[in-house]
Amino acid sequence: MSDSSAPTPTYGYAASTANAGEATFHVNDLWRVIKNRWPTSVTILILVMATGFVVTKLQPKIYESSAVLRVEKENRDLQVFQTSYESFDPVFFQTEFELIQSKKVLNPVIIKLGVANRLCKVMELPEGSISDDQAFMIFRKSYLQVRPFRNTKLIEVVCQSTHPEEAALYANAITDAYEEFRRSEITGRSDSGLKVLDGEVQKQKKLVSEAAAKLFAANNYREYLELHGLSVQLTEALAEHWHARMREELQVKLEDSSDLQGILDQGYRGSRYSFGYPACPDLEQQVQLCELLDPARIGVELSEEFQLHPEQSTSAIIVHHPEAKYFNAN
Question: Is the pLDDT assigned to residue 105 strictly greater than 70?
Fold first, then answer.
């Protein structure tokens, strides 16, 4: 005696037909339940929607404000006649990305804006319950988002708050704090360089002054004048060297004459103007120039007669315009 019932196929057309029939059965069964109990289904739907509406209304509104930063490496060369095509540096970008979220940048903002007390009010805690370190952690985790723009040098600083003005205040303060930190870094390096230069100026001033004083006291006037003339001419040569370096950085040095006599005849673009010379004889203008440059940072002072001291010093204004010459008879 054999069993006449055939097994259900597990693959092929027969299997897909069986699965489709089973799915149809479940859909019909679900529809039958909804049809018979629609009052209950509608009530549940209304309760869910009402609960969502109430929760949304009870929650405080959160506002976002953003500011965009462009982070670039310090450019130590002049870029006047050409565009800088510096490639994207992912390591530097990541470093600055993390710096924006660090205590070095955020702590001044936390302290300046009194973020700790603001958080106490939001969290309904007594004033002083949150320290600045705790405020830093809370603010960074819940109120701040830093988003990079892919393959660019741009970073978006996004701040959140229940007040739109406060969110904007946070975002702007963070970007200002980051820029101030970068400026202080650059200024610090410049100050270090100026200190080294000041030390070298004082060293050379002492060497030349002492040697000249000894020659003068010994009535060796010829040697004294030769030493004095050499020191002054070396100062002038150094000024010309830096003028050439500036023309190179300004991308105009290719216009320089190829021979020394041509250079001496001003065979290059632009001019180096120093007050007291025939092209600009008003020596009193040194006052304005010194106010701009502050040469006291490297131990150089301006006398009442508008002369630079030590004497082995010079100042100038560099003009790179092609028509800038000492005298133009045309």
Answer: yes
